[in-house]
Amino acid sequence: xxxxxxLTHRLFTGVSRQHLxxxxxxLAEPWQAVVEGRRHEVRGGVRKRAAGAGARHQLVFTxxxxxxxxxxxxxxxxxxxxxxxxVDRSIVTRAIGEIRTLLARRxxxxxxxxxxxxxxxxxxxxxxxxxxxxxxxxxxxxxxxxPVAGRGGRRAFVSGKKKQNTMKATVIADHLGRTxxxxxxxxxxxxxxxxxxxxxxxxxxxxxxxxxxxxDDGYLGLRRDHPGQAITPPRKPNKSALADVHAxxxxxxxxxxxxxxxxxxxxxDHKRWKQLLRWTHRRNNLPxxxxxxxxxxxxxxxxV
Length: 304
What we know:
- By secondary structure, this protein is an alpha/beta fold.
- It is about 50% helix and about 10% strand.
- Strands 3, 4, 5, 6, 7 and 8 form a six-stranded mixed β-sheet that branches.
- InterPro entries: HARBI1_dom, Transposase_HTH_dom.
- GO terms for molecular function: metal ion binding.
């Protein structure tokens, strides 16, 4: 065992100690409800002992949060974390599963609005229309394990762009690169615009007509369906056009890229967490992991 106070340092957890303290205070009650619910299922009824009686947790709640953050930040194996905290690997596995789910449910922080969080795409569009925020949307892909041979849907994860087995995450950020939302991850073979449509972006455009979203060339279909709201780079003029037309096009395209680059910065912030560089675990755990990391990153950038 090592000094557990050292493990709470930002170099290990990826968050400041102040941020860690607020996380512990926020998640303590939901975690207790999860534990009581699991014990209720095991008992098959109400508890028969007084509150606080019975066996103690070998890994207390604070240490469970720290172990989960270290796992998300550095992708340390569960066995290594068990050695650091002096418990069995299975205890760490259960702790990470519990805390990761709670982190994923938090959503993303709203800039300068303490206690308010965005969890759905409709929440983001409502916030953008109320505050007059111009959104930036983009997708990123994370390499995953190749599905087992003979299993249905194996080709769905093969990305035509990356030439790898990937899963695709769609992320929305504001003009300062602050993460506002991320979706349920999709197989890498799915087109970027299709992934956005499957999340209900067409309904959001219809219900929030004043919201504008900056996009790249991968979302030309959205620009066609929602002109004036889905904004992509300007189309290239014909070769026969005058030189000044091409110059204005180059300038407009460069300005659009400069305005949209903040969502790329948001994606880069997410990829600083090692688990999102290459996912080597079960694919069904990746959506919760990405949402958990996006929520943690949004906490840090919300006050920028």
